[in-house]
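Residues and backbone
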Amino acid sequence: MRPHVHIAQLAALAVVATPLVASAQTFSRVLGVFNVFVGLMLTAALLTYATGFIVWVIRLGTWPSYRTEAIKIMEWSVVILFVLVVLLAIVQFFQNHPREGSYVASIIVLLLFVGIIIYLVSHSGGEKKEEKK
């Protein structure tokens, strides 16, 4: 059999088993990992903002001041905080609605597997091998 057929069969099996994988107990473990990730992002955002602010204050009277670099650092920390807010909203949704959250997660996994199958089938070669004369 061709290798992409084996991969497609494994992907189909994984799609069938997706609701079993996305149970409520597994979901709580995944949410625990998200909570750790959110805490790390909050720490990174605060440290980044503090670094940018200190650089901005230190370069106050210098010429050329290069204060725009410090402002870019602070902008990135604000971006990290906005991503953090979105992640917290997602985690709260999954914690408050575990059944709907597991349904949404299984649909996302299903779509990912279908996308991988389509990609593998469309890029499976199909080229004719040249015979040696």
